[in-house]
Amino acid sequence: MKPENRSAFNFINSYIKRYWLLVLFGIVAIIFSSFIQTIIPVITAAVIDYIRAIHTGAEYKVPLYGFITAENQSPKIVLLWLGLALTGVAVVLAVARILSRIYLISISRHVEYDMLNDYLRHLQKMSQHFFQQNKTGDLMARATSDIGAIRRLTGPAIIQFSSTLVMFIFALYFMLRISIPLTFIALAPLPFIVFIVYSRVGKIHALFNRIQEQISQLTSRAQENFSGIRVIKSYVREKFEIEAFKEENDEYIRRNISLARVDSFLHAWLEFLLGLGLIAVIWLGGRQAIDGSITLGELVAMISYVGMLGWPMISVGILLNIWQRGLAAAQRVQEVLNAPADIRDSEMTRAMSDISGDLEFKNVSFVYPGTAKAVLTNISLRVPRGKKLAIVGATGAGKTSLVHLIPRLYEPTEGQILIDGVDIKTIPLQLLRRCIGLVQQESFLFSDSIADNIAFGIIEHDEDAISRAAEASQLKLDIDQFPDGLETIIGERGITLSGGQKQRTSISRAVLKSPRILILDDALSAVDTYTEEEILRALRPIMCERTTIIVAHRISTIRDADHIIVLQDGVIAEEGTHQQLLEKKGIYFDMHERQKLEEKLLEID
């Protein structure tokens, strides 16, 4: 087995081992059902030989495992017992098969459940850089199609493999008891079957890998189309996107057809070789039955056993297909699960229960992973607990990058960020993020009610608290106009809300969380000036109780901040209070004057 296949097998086995008791019960049930199934040809042979003996007048003295003896019994009684034996075997066989499937199929569902949970848990530990490097559609395909392939390997494939192996052993035993030469004739195609199967293993594995990659491409394109449907319609790109998806779909079909061809070739050769073996058994066995070496019933039983061996041999191809698909899928899931979480708790993590919010940057520089240009360079500043810091600057100056370093969405390339004099890398990550309320530029809302979106970051909450948070962001006035108020369902990504309503919902979410550090990353850009002033007025009492960082483009948003920094090309170009910066007549002054002029022009219009 190749190293990558061995690793994938060990990965799957690590989940199966958790349910070893179910595996044991399932295997026992399969062994029992396979043994019972191989009894059926024995009973059938006894029936045929008994009827033939009665027809020819010969004496029939062959016992059936000591349970039924034809001596001194009327034909009706013997046939009745043989019929009851077949019925009893069929009932026991059905029960054993049902139990084996219940046990082993439940294992596959448990494995799927555990693997999906581990997959999502691991993804939630990954940094933003990971999600920038991996398409959402690809990650979704691994969670659905790939883990589904693993489920089929750990359920139906285990059943089929176990049943095939046990059936082969029992059938072979009974065949050897009937006729050793016939048994070897029946097994003559086996070496050729093994050779053909082995020669197809690598091809099937490679083809399935290509199919799974194409599924990821299809899922990614579909997900992007659904997310960007407004843009697609606005630019009349429906036809282009349909054609692009059709091309991806055509490639998916081509790859599946290639696999189907290999699979068909495999099955055709297996059935052909087994057919040759069966013809040989009928020819040689017929001659032995004529000359009396074996009975007619034994010949029928031998043919039945060859049929039983035929399905296991044919199922080798199916098993091979499921096996290679499962291993290839496991490798793809492993790629995600083995990806290290570059932002996590370290061995130096302290035992802490809370933070107060005193924030300090010490010579912090930052470069995005995979790039060379520094986004932030040698940033040093301090924000005492309960104070308000404002950050302004042109687009691309590094404002958002700076605030994303505080909750450790990214790690600084150089320097330190301290909270309460403690390096944030030594603060438990869950505690750090729980104590920070971040309202980002692009508000993300879930397809749920407004109330549940506001309460997203809180485990225990009440309607009054949600309502107060909505009032603080001036969202309450809009909510009163919705048909179901706070319980109104807002659709995927909050599609039924305006940009300003989305931002205010996000602000309400952060306010309800009551964080020690509140970060508003251009969170008021989508609201008008009047609403902005009302929100800031409502937030002032809240800001006084916590450290607040406001990233903004409008000077009106941050003029009452305790400290203002102006970022330019990743460095602090200016800093001070609003009045101090105006007196410097630098970058901040120019921004202020330009915005005043824009406001006057709007008033004239």
Helix/strand layout:
Blueprint: H1 3-16, H2 20-56, H3 75-125, H4 128-133, H5 136-154, H6 156-178, H7 180-187, H8 190-227, H9 229-234, H10 238-291, H11 296-337, E1 359-367, E2 374-383, E3 388-393, H12 399-404, E4 414-419, E5 422-423, H13 429-434, E6 436-439, H14 450-454, H15 463-472, H16 476-479, H17 499-513, E7 517-521, H18 529-543, E8 547-551, H19 555-558, E9 563-568, E10 571-576, H20 578-584, H21 587-604
Parallel strand pairs: 3-8, 3-9, 6-7, 7-8
Antiparallel strand pairs: 1-2, 1-4, 4-5, 9-10
Helix pairs in contact: 1-11, 2-3, 2-6, 2-11, 3-5, 5-8, 5-11, 6-7, 6-11, 7-10, 8-10, 8-11, 10-11, 15-17
Label the overall shape: elongated
Strand count = 10
Give the number of domains.
3
Largest sheet, in brief, is: 6 strands, mixed
The CATH architecture classification of the largest domain is Up-down Bundle
Tell me the helix content: 55-70%
Structural class: alpha/beta
How much β-strand is present in the residues? Answer: 5-15%
Poorly predicted parts: 62-67
Task: Provide a concise account of the structure shown.
Helix 2 (20-56) runs antiparallel to helix 3 and helix 5 runs antiparallel to helix 11 (296-337). The protein has 21 helices and ten strands. The protein has a six-stranded mixed sheet with strand order 6-7-8-3-9-10. It has a four-stranded antiparallel sheet with strand order 2-1-4-5, with no helix packed on it.
Keywords:
605 residues; alpha/beta; ABC transporter transmembrane region fold; Rossmann fold; 3 domains; 6-stranded mixed β-sheet; 4-stranded antiparallel β-sheet; 21 helices; 10 strands; 64% helix
